[in-house]
Give the backbone structure.
Amino acid sequence: MHMPRPKLILFDLDGTLYLNGQLFPGVTELIEKLSHSDFQYGFLTNNSTIGPRDYYRKLKGLGLKLRQHNVVTSCEASCLMLHGLGLGPEIYVLGTRKFRHFLASQGFIHSYSQAKALLIGFDTELTYRKLTEATRLVLAGIPIVASHPDPVCPGDLPDAGMLLEYFKAARPGTIIQAIAGKPHRWLVELLEQRFQVRREEIIMVGDRVNTDMRFARNFAMRSILVLNGQPQPDLGEITPDLILPEIGQLAEQYWTLINRW
């Protein structure tokens, strides 16, 4: 099948462009080069601890050239998912205060007593009380959705996917109704709306096989797996179009290649 010329390059954040708040070598130069090219570019994350405005400030603070428009998170995809499924506006948000605040700005109301669904995010502020309330909602049979499926965040931090497995164990037979982030469809619909491109015109650049590369495969995008000094993971049935030892190489020896795709 002939692939159309790509118009948008998407970058995962944690583990792809930076780790522990430090940019990998060559990232600043890569984004600068993209800003003068024919490509649109975006920054894409499953991490729902903070909202898109916070990510915009974080990336600007790291010295990257971008606008708010360039940042897409699972927070926004979660809102699209909730609207699409007709859930809410009252939901129980198992997530950080900033995640709850973003959802509130989009019309959703955090509620335990009147919750129409449980939304699971990456909750770095998780408490036993919150876990107990969410567990009781699950045992009562409330619909469960999640911002993203990652079990572990870069930095070896327990993530939303680990909580999904916990709730499946708490109530055997539990079905997760939908997941907003990579590699699922709500995020790609958001991207097509935001950047006015078709999914086949996207290049996905990331470090995770089960989220970034699977996302690309699920929606017929081109894909670039970045190792950044880590050993190559098991690819399974996934075949990235390109595997880079370091992200900075994209602006150097591989720049001509992606411009010929």
Observations:
- DSSP finds nine helices and 15 strands in the chain.
